[in-house]
Amino acid sequence: MKFAATSIAALTFAGKARLAAAQEKRTLTVAWDADIDTLDPASFKTSAGYTVQANVYDSPLMWKVQPVAGKPGVSQARPGEIEGGIAQSWSFENGGATLVLNIRKGVKLPSGRDVNATTVKYLLNRGLQSPGYMRILFPRLLGVTNPEHFKVRDEFTIEINMPSPSPMALDTMALMNNALLDPDEVKTNGTAEDPWAANWLKRNTAGLGPYQLVKNQPGVEVVLEAQADHWRGRPYFDRVVFKYVPNEADRVLLLKRKAIDMVVGRSTLSPRNVKSLAAEPGLKTVSVPDTLCHWLCMNTQKAPLNNVKVRQAINYAIPVQAIIPSVLYGYGTEMKSPVPSLTPGYDSTISPYKYDITKAKELMREAGFGKEPIAIDLAVRAGWQPHEQASIWLQTELEKIGFKVSIVKETEATFRQIATKGDHQLSIESWQSWINDPFYHLFFNFHSTAKGTNTSFYSNPEVDKLIDENMHETDIGKRLAAAKRLQEIIIGDAVWGHLWYENWTRVMRSDLVGIEKRWDSYERFFSMKLA
């Protein structure tokens, strides 16, 4: 409490001095509630780690954004639209099985070394071989299992040789996990036990980007400074300062006092607090549809949730049309399919579920339940306000159909650990697919081999077969037909209790423009400026 009060006082003073300081150095001050756990591009990390990485590194390609109608100064990614990054252009050969990247000339690493095809091959080799996230994605999405599949054709051309065409090849190259690194810098800081310098990269960077990391003080502050000679040009803001503000009420107060310019990160502000700031002078709210799903997760391996009729009954008992306005305040929409509404192949017409307690009770009786209350735990993450609020609604309705629900609040770390082990019965989960493709989404959430992400522990041989057969299918018609069939099966099996799709929502100073929303949802500050 003492630290928080001191931070607010300091930031309030900073807010009063902001206009004067802006004449000397353009500074964007933001608040977040997370710390950087690692800056290793290939690893999965906290939202703080990704937010910084998205600004201090460059990837081979990027998701292209387009202006959002009716929202001046805001742009958003669209499915299948890609633009150049370190690779200024690309092409496909060998019937689509070979992706050729043409590396941008004249780009230099901070060390002064030139960026070329060999530099890019190193980042791809490292992703495939280091103990990180890309070691899983390259084989699954591209079919690439050996560094020899990455071939330097000439100084500024590299080819990625896949066993067959992949509809997700370009999106994979846009992931920030494919950030460019200085090979010599990584090798210098590697060890025999850690040849890819994963430990060193937890707190250090070795790449190029619009900004460079100049300060990383856990629990206090992170500072980025602009790279004057970046190939995109110098960013408008010379400095981006992240202030650690763990308490949401403090973040709201700092916005009102104009001591910060915006709140960033996965956990920014609850919908209720966003709504309370809607009419605040000097502030504005940016909210656009997103691919972020929230659902009631039912462990299909635990009784009585291993009974499909019980899961169907639960779906009919969810008063989602009452929950959404009470919990989201307009910053989200009803989930009508396990596939996000912005994802190609999404079909809102398949689900039969609507709030119907009579139907839910009937299904419970058909399943052999209803005479005695069924004790069941509903786990939520403490501090996730929409989940906590929704859990109370769910508790009330599920008890009407024969359950005795105990709401269990867990820390983020505890929740994730228990979920991964399969020890939750009911829980409220969330997921966002950074590659906006139906089969990427369906694989990680519903394939029986997707350990750690298939939190319902769902297994259906027909689902596995359809996903496997269509993951790399290039015929769009066949892919969409398979995606529809998968939705029919999964909805019929009532694997998820459908809740909502959450909007990407940020509150910021009213004259801040150049807001770009990409599929991973992490802010790029190089595009931002003051109107």
UniProtKB/TrEMBL annotation:
Record keywords: Signal, Transport
GO MF entries: peptide transmembrane transporter activity
Domain Solute-binding protein family: 81-451
Pfam families named among the record's database cross-references: SBP_bac_5
Biological process, per Gene Ontology: peptide transport
CDD domains: PBP2_NikA_DppA_OppA_like_7
The organism's place on the tree of life at top rank: Bacteria
Location of this chain's protein in the cell: Periplasm
Main location (coarse class): periplasm
GO CC field: ATP-binding cassette (ABC) transporter complex; outer membrane-bounded periplasmic space
InterPro entries xref list: Peptide/Ni-bd, SBP_5, SBP_5_dom
Gene3D superfamilies: Dipeptide-binding Protein, Domain 1, Dipeptide-binding Protein, Domain 3, Periplasmic binding protein-like II
Entry similarity comment: Belongs to the bacterial solute-binding protein 5 family.
PANTHER family, per the entry: PERIPLASMIC BINDING COMPONENT OF ABC TRANSPORTER (PTHR30290), PERIPLASMIC OLIGOPEPTIDE-BINDING PROTEIN-RELATED (PTHR30290:SF10)
Protein's UniProt name: Solute-binding protein family 5 domain-containing protein
